[in-house]
Backbone:
């Protein structure tokens, strides 16, 4: 069988009917609508199911802040000191037992030796790690011009929209050894409001 | 809207483009037979979309690939559906490819001027198959791992640079990180880009020549939009619905609950384990025919393998490529169609044969081969043995091949079952509170007593000990072994009679030495014991109660395997081969007539209530996890206390055994095992480590070897400390992953 060139060249009639078939517009419209709807469905199923999975992290609930033992009480002075927070870390499918998950500055209050202040060492502006400089008695951020007082208050002009994030603490007595436990949390940065991160 | 369209039109010429794309002429009107190409494009774009989203959670690495796929399937909401779409659409694509090819060949659409497009189509087919092959490895589960090993080894068979090609594909000599990164780059980068490139050419050339209408219908011509688009869309919808149906198949077929979504969609095996020796590798179903085809060349050396794996499949591809040229001759088209049908028919038949070969044991009555199994056992004792009567011999010869096929299939099926069990366990462990360590999910399985215990038992204990739920006593047939139980139970053992040399006289009256079967005073043949206690439920209440049962402690049932045909062969060992069944405790050991057996059978003065108390109290020593709740009840505590008194009484157990108090084991001379902590983890560990230790059987140990090394001399043991722990934990049913 030989191959024939395409037959019936398109008649270019100015009409409402299909340029080729002459099918009335109403039937043509129904066909077109059905084709479009079904085409959209088959295209959307994979796309939506993909987007749904992609959005999974938004649906994951944040783990409630857990108290973690951070320091022996007698190792805490009235100067802010950096302590690592060591705890189990879940990273998607992996669990890393007892690894550093963050850092905090702890100091004993001058006014009451039984009271403490625990500050998350992350700058609330853009998430860099602040460091305490003894010479100036300030927390300084290495990224932008954020500086904080010993008690965590901002020193104007400050890039950070809020003071350093304070964390809840408690004292636990284990066989006579007293230690400070901290409810370690991270917060969204850049905002005035202190909002816990998932 | 119109203004925007005009703006865009002036800058891009989009109207013309759209018109060109949508108003292609279809001579003779739209038809269902033209839908295959469009469904393939649809399938491919579904793969691109779902693949990209899977990529966002997938991590190619030997300790993260399985783990991330597990995370997608089990922890991300909707992940099972996305993965299912990708998995089954890949299979649908292979089917659609074949349909498209068939339509093109049958319609003769490969002929001038469409030859180049036909070749482009074949290239697209090979790229698609390459995508299927590379994608199969990515979950890094047992199936993908072993199938890839086989596939790449076959690649290594290739003449000339085969081995180099294999090393390049695998990324070295071993399968691991680089295999995954390479396969992933091929699967998600190289092959899709190639496919898109060739697809653009394929469609462009297709548009140039227009649709190949076989017999232009009297019907009027139409355009691609909307008539053919509607038909294409409906066909795509049908493909999609089929894929969704397959995703939900486990629930539709009742294998899983509808709510158990993580078990819908694509299967997921246990993490790849290069050390496993019981996994039966098979390629995905659409490559099964090649797998089966290769079997035809078994035993024909390297060239035979090359022929089956490379040359003949290559030749078939070549014929496919030559179709447009062959089609020029008068009978060429007929030959092409016939050839295609032969290849597809052959592939279908090979696929069926492969599945049939693997599954023929399913539903097969295992007792059908019982007689043959016996004969084979006997034969394995004496290779030159000829069966007594010709009929038996003939039956053996005729059915041996069938039996071998049956055994092969049975091994395959139990291998699959074992793999499924392991896959389930891996998920159970990964979703447990310990999640997955950085060393990967495989290390969870390797350190899991429930997974390793049975394997260690199989390798080290099963040659003597049994492990199966004991049947009722009496002359019941041995327990029917379901496939699922076959991984452990051996309910029968061969017994050989003992022999002794005696002085006899030959026909002429000269003294000669002869070996005769040893008999006891009653003239019964003596069989040396060959098997140790059944350890199913060791140290549980039921197990100990059975040990203290006079009917059970030394029970042994022996079945004859072969009747001696005539008195002349009466001293032929084979004539006396027996099979031991139901030796749950000491029946098949030296302890059969030992002190404990004698005590239980004749001298024990405990009444029924006291017996129960002793069994309960001794079992409580084991602190078995399965009994812990029960034992905590106050009433049970009373029972245990009463039993402990009997255990500690010098009128009963403690007249021989140690039960409470400090002992210097180096001073112990008796051979009665310690009952303090009987069956506990510590007791069991020490016992398996060295049953001949003074604390246990001392000098009365019946053949059980010490499994631990000797720390004093530094000699390595049969088992490491950790292996001993895994074995002991499994025997005690101590699942570290169970909620405590």
Residues:
């Amino acid at each position: 069988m030989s191959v024939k060139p395409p037959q019936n060249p398109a008649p270019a009639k100015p009409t409402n009917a299909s340029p080729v078939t002459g099918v009335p517009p109403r039937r043509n419209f129904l066909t077109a609508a059905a084709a479009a709807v079904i085409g959209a469905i088959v295209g959307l199923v994979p796309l939506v199911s993909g987007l749904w999975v992609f959005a999974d992290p938004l649906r994951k609930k944040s783990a409630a802040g857990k108290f973690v033992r951070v320091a022996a009480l007698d190792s805490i002075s009235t100067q802010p000191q950096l302590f690592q927070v060591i705890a189990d870390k879940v990273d998607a499918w992996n669990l890393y037992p007892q690894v550093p998950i963050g850092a905090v500055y702890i100091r004993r209050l001058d006014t009451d030796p039984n009271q403490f202040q625990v500050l998350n060492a992350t700058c609330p502006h853009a998430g860099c790690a602040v460091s305490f400089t003894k010479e100036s008695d300030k927390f300084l951020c290495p990224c932008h011009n954020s500086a904080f007082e010993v008690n965590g208050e901002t020193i104007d002009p400050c890039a950070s929209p809020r003071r350093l994030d304070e964390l809840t603490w408690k004292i636990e007595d284990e066989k006579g050894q007293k230690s400070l436990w901290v409810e370690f949390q991270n917060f969204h940065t850049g905002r005035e409001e202190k909002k816990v991160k998932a | 809207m119109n203004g925007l369209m005009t703006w865009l039109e002036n800058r891009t010429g989009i109207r013309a483009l759209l018109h060109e794309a949508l108003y292609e002429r279809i001579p003779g009107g739209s038809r269902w037979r033209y839908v295959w190409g469009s469904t393939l494009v649809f399938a491919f774009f579904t793969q691109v979309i779902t693949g990209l989203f899977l990529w966002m959670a997938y991590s190619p690495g030997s300790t993260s690939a399985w783990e991330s796929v597990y995370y997608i399937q089990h922890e991300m909401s909707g992940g099972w559906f996305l993965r299912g779409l990708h998995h089954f659409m890949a299979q649908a694509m292979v089917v659609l490819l074949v349909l498209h090819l068939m339509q093109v060949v049958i319609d003769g659409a490969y002929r001038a001027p469409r030859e180049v497009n036909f070749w482009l189509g074949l290239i697209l087919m090979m790229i698609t198959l390459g995508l299927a092959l590379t994608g199969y490895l990515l979950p890094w589960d047992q199936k993908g791992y072993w199938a890839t090993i086989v596939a790449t080894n076959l690649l290594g068979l290739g003449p000339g640079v085969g081995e180099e090609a294999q090393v390049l594909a695998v990324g070295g000599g071993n399968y691991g990180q680089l295999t995954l990164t390479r396969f992933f780059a091929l699967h998600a980068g190289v092959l899709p880009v190639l496919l898109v490139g060739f697809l653009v050419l394929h469609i462009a050339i297709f548009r140039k020549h227009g649709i190949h209408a076989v017999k232009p219908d009297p019907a009027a011509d139409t355009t691609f939009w909307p008539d053919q688009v509607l038909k294409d869309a409906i066909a795509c919808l049908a493909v999609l619905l089929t894929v969704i149906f397959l995703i939900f198949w486990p629930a539709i077929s009742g294998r899983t609950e509808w709510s158990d979504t993580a078990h819908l969609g694509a299967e997921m095996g246990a993490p790849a384990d290069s050390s496993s020796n019981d996994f039966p590798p098979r390629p995905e179903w659409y490559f099964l025919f090649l797998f089966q085809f290769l079997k035809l060349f078994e035993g024909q050396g390297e060239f035979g393998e090359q022929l089956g794996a490379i040359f003949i499949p290559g030749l078939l591809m070549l014929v496919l490529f030559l179709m447009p040229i062959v089609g020029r001759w008068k009978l060429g088209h007929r030959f092409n169609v016939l050839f295609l049908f032969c290849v597809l028919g052959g592939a279908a038949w090979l696929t069926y044969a492969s599945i049939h070969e693997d599954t023929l044991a399913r539903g097969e009555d295992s007792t059908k081969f019982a007689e043959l199994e016996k004969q084979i056992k006997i034969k394995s004792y004496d290779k030159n043995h000829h069966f007594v009567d010709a009929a038996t011999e003939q039956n053996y010869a005729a059915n041996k091949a069938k039996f071998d096929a049956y055994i092969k299939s049975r091994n395959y099926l139990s291998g699959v079952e074992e793999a499924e069990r392991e896959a389930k366990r891996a998920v159970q462990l990964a979703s447990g509170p310990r999640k997955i360590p950085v060393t990967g999910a495989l290390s969870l399985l390797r350190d899991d007593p429930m997974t390793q215990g049975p394997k260690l038992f199989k390798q080290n204990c099963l040659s003597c000990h049994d492990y199966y739920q004991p049947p009722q006593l009496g002359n019941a047939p041995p327990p029917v072994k379901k496939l699922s139980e076959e991984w452990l139970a051996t309910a029968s053992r061969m017994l050989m009679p003992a022999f002794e040399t005696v002085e006899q006289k030959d026909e002429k009256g000269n003294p000669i030495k002869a070996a005769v079967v040893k008999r006891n005073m009653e003239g019964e043949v003596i069989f040396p014991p060959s098997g140790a206690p059944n350890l199913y439920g060791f140290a549980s209440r039921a197990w100990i109660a059975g040990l203290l049962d006079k009917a059970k402690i030394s029970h042994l049932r022996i079945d004859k395997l072969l009747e001696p045909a005539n008195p002349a062969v009466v001293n032929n060992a084979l004539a006396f081969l027996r099979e031991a069944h139901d030796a749950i405790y000491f029946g098949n050991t030296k302890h059969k007539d030992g002190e404990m057996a004698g005590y239980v059978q004749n001298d024990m003065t405990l009444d029924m209530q006291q017996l129960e108390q002793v069994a309960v109290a001794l079992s409580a020593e084991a602190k078995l996890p399965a009994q812990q709740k029960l034992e905590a009840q106050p009433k049970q505590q009373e029972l245990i206390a009463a039993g402990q008194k009997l255990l500690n009484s010098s009128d009963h157990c403690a007249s021989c055994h140690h039960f409470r108090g400090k002992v210097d084991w180096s001073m112990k001379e008796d051979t009665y095992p310690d009952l303090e902590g009987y069956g506990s983890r510590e007791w069991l560990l020490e016992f398996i480590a060295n049953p001949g230790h003074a604390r246990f059987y001392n000098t009365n140990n019946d053949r059980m070897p010490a499994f631990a090394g000797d720390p004093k001399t530094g000699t390595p043991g049969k088992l490491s400390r950790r292996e001993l722990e895994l074995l002991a934990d499994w025997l005690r049913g101590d699942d570290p992953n169970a909620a405590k």
